[in-house]
Amino acid sequence: MIYSQDYARSIEDVRVIVKHAKLDHKNLTNTAQAIYYPQEAEGHDLGGIKLLEVDDHILQAVENGAEVCFKGALNEKVVFCTESRTYEVKEAEISNSLLLVQNLKLAQATSRSPIKSPKSGVNTSMDSSMEEEGDEAVVDTIDEVERKDVVKIFHDYFELRQVRPKYRKIIDLLRLTRYAGPENEHLIDRSLLFRFNQLLDTVQCSKEEFHEGLKKYRAIEVEDRIRMLDIEYEYRVMTLLLALISENSWDRDEIDKEISLESMQGIVPYEVIDGIFDVYTTPSERVPGRYCYREDLVGALFAEKLLQHGLKFHIDEFLVTWQESLPEGFEVNEQYLRGIGIIDREGTVPCVRGLNEADLPMNLLVRLNTLFRTKERWNLEQIEPYIECFATPTVGVTSILAKYTRSLVVKGVRMYVSKH
After folding, report:
1. Is the pTM of this model over 0.90?
2. How many CB atoms lie within 10 A of CB 368?
3. Alpha helices, H only, 64-176
4. Per-domain boundaries in the chain
5. What distances in angstroms separate CA 105 from CA 11, 30, 148, one per listed residue?
6. In this predicted model, what pLDDT tens digit does every residue of 146-188 receive, in sequence order?
7. Which of 7, 119, 190, 267 is the most exposed place for a label (fewest CB within 10 A)?
């Protein structure tokens, strides 16, 4: 390796090195490539290039010209995002130095030998000379030296690992400005409101996952700003919408969107009612052009309304109250409490209490301590919604629990308890 930028290696220099290295000229091609280390010159930033290890998904995105980006604020770990996936970024060491050289030629490009493979056209002069040492074929030796400059020497690279989208920032930012109706907008600091692209640039997830996150937390766009709804206001609007089912004698899967929105004129702003309708409904499979309310979301909203003040209910009383609050045709299901409430049948009195996943700490160990203070023993189905945000495609919830908790089997059911 040459460090002096004033010196250029000659053909004679190369031949001397070949002789000292005891290399056979018959195994070498015509062109030698002399490697030169770059100097720290103005305009040549040696630290401006980083190696990034990518999988097939990222490689395809780059080759197709799709948008990829890094995201992360000052106090956050950086993530790498494609249009649909989020990756954790870690710095890893390379065991050997790796040189980045522009326009470096491979073996076949450095030879003028006429010996070619009849099928692929790949230069086989080296293989031929090794296999047919007795032949008298003429093999050209080195007669040209090309200069090749090293752009950078790498000792590390960025390693990417796919992770779940980090939605917590959506909640933390939008909670500050919950929408509680136009009559309460004068209480909102407008400087704290976010447009769609502003929030997307801030939240550590891909664009596709970001859309899913907005649906998950029932955020809608009001006056060109993304807003979460105040639970009392959301409950009130949904009660009015659901009342239209009986008023119009609709079946659950034949909801008319146009009539629903028209009925709310003068009561709820159009943008709000339109956004809420889109969140809580899906297209009807039976009646084209009509919609069906999602029972899971409606059930979860009414359950959250009952549990929001931290009250503890006897399980039977809660199920009865919950069922009575729902419109006719909707049925309660304990699965609808996922991530917003827990059922404790192991205690002296079986009960239900509110526990919203969005309110828990984002540090895994602190979150586990909080969970086990709330409830001593958990089965997988109960604890999963509170832990799954820490899982990855390769490390699932059960692996996390195996590492950070103790497990025991009670009446044939595996339960998880605090490790300490």
Report:
1. no
2. 25
3. 125-131, 168-174
4. 11-39+46-109+139-162, 167-229
5. 17, 12, 10
6. 888 888 888 889 999 999 898 989 999 999 999 999 999 999 9
7. 119
